[in-house]
Write a structure and sequence with these properties.
The chain has 303 residues and is mostly helical. Helices cover 58% and strands 7% of the residues. It is built from 11 helices and 5 strands; from the N terminus they run ααααααββαααααβββ. The protein has a 3-stranded antiparallel beta sheet.
Length: 303
Amino acid sequence: MKIFDYKTAPKTLLTPDIVAMLTSIHEHKGKQELYIEAHADILNTLIEIAKVQSTGASNRIEGIHTSDKRLEEIVKDKSAPRNRTEQEIAGYRDVLATIHESYDYVHPRPNIILQLHRQLYSFAQTSIGGSYKNADNFITETDAEGNESTRFTPVPAYLTANAMESLCAAFIESIEKNEYDALLLIPMFILDFQKIYEDNASGKLSDKRLAQLSGSYEQEQASLKEQSALLQDELNAFNADGEKAGKFIEVVRRYTEFDELSNAMLNEFIQKILVHEADKSSGERVQEVDVYFNFIGNFTLPK
């Protein structure tokens, strides 16, 4: 039985670059509540984009493809799946939604993993969802002459449940001890769960197959980088708006108490005033006035 090491192995990963990256991530996380409160609509839009991108990328890695239009329709639950490919995409969509909506309660325990697996195959006409394999399997390859050979023998069916128990217990124990950052332990758990790279290092997964998998990941990474650049532009604009709002609040705080309205005060608050042409079409004289404040522009009080 493989031993999953979450006690000493993480120490080898704590390089200066990784420590700096973890620190940066936590600093941005600290600003998250402010972002949510200030611009919930922008963050909700980013979440919806991320769901579509994640679903498409993950399914393409598994060789599951559909058009961008159908992908978006299925992920946004605007269309029922039409075939086996779309059934798997719909199942992934529901699993992703469960994690997003209930992440505080989705712990990496065998019963939870099986529950998500059941949900993943909930649209498919198969009974494999929600249970471990009941028969041994082998990773094979076929050479140029058509000869087939076994490259890797996965965990036997009768040991799979024990292996999952051991993996989850080791991970949860390390998380609860809080000795290492969870952001360091999570990718370790994922790699232990997949076993891809370790199997290749020990000659158990063919280089050709690993190259195919790596190529898929790199292709998706390029796509996500392009999308990330667009999202970064939106975030930069969002951060700039946050800085402007902060400066405006500073001005407001300076004038929380005053006896009379002065020209200096008006100049600090107001950038310009636009007076629109009067409208008498309703029988009454209506004239709109737009006030543009410094830093935040035209501001309309919510009704």
